[in-house]
Amino acid sequence: MRTSNHLIGLLNFLTFLLSIPILGGGIWLSSRANNTDCLKFLQWPLIIIGVSIMVVSLAGFAGACYRNTFLMRLYLVVMFLIIAVLIGFIIFAYVVTDKGSGRRVMNRAYLDYYLEDYSGWLEERVASDSYWGKISSCIRDSKVCARMGRTITGVPETPDMFYLRKLTPVQSGCCKPPTDCGYVYQNETVWNLGAGLMGANPDCTRWSNDQEQLCYACDSCKAGVLASLKKSWRKVSVINIIVMIILVILYIIAYAAYRNNRRIDNDEPYGEARMTKAQPSAFHL
Question: CA spacing 20 to 30 A to 71: which of 34, 36, 186, 275?
Fold first, then answer.
């Protein structure tokens, strides 16, 4: 254990480097919140955790290198709290994104999305009127539907070519009507009524060829946003789990280094037993 202080100093530097992926994950979610997912409160816990790990790892590095017991004690307490918060955040992310996925459609490469396939806290938050107005406005401003247009040697793609495209959840849910509505493809964001009966899906009447409306008011659009969030969060959670495991290992080594500092401060030789044999008292009659 004599080398534990040097080891913890090195490992805390590595912890500082490991905080970068967490912070990067938060920034990535933030960029998606501005351009694709449009839900802007979910990235802040990751950013705060990443910055906290950076600061605490520097304190642990200084405490280990200079055998500062106070800094090491502070490092242990704060790092324990960070690990607990990170574990809670990972569990929360999996719980709120556990349910729901796209449905396969015959003769289509893309999936259709239905709000009834989702439930829980995140679904209620996304579907609420107070949040959805901001989210739909963000999707509209991001021009995600306007960028769907494709041409092959100057010729717009045919319906069969479009049906073979793998659309993102937001593109499928917000930029076209649900397949069961029976609309006929004209181009990526213009669909006309077919000759048959319109489907019973309420989104069928919400669809509009107005490029400012499209299916932004549809439940399928809300489901597409939820599916996109689930995909984004699962990617970030994989990184968080790996970092959490490494942090637990570092915490165990840091605790050993702290015990080593306490032993040195108490002038205890390495390996000395702390217990001594009690001497019987002398009795004088």
Answer: 275
Q: Which of 63, 40, 112 is nearest to 254 (CA)?
A: 63
Largest CA distance in the chain: 118
Residue 18 has phi, psi (to 5 degrees) of: -70, -20
Which tokens hold the place of 175? 């930029």
pLDDT digits 0-9 by tens, 37-87: 566 666 677 788 888 888 888 877 777 777 677 777 788 888 899 889 889
pLDDT in tens, 241-276: 888 888 888 788 778 777 776 776 666 555 554 444
Tell me if 175 sits within 8 A of 225, measured CB to CB. Answer: no
Check if the beta carbon of residue 176 is closer than 8 Å to that of residue 189. Answer: yes
Task: Kindly report the backbone phi and psi dihedral angles of residue 184, in degrees, each rounded to the nearest multiple of 5, phi listed first.
Answer: -105, 130
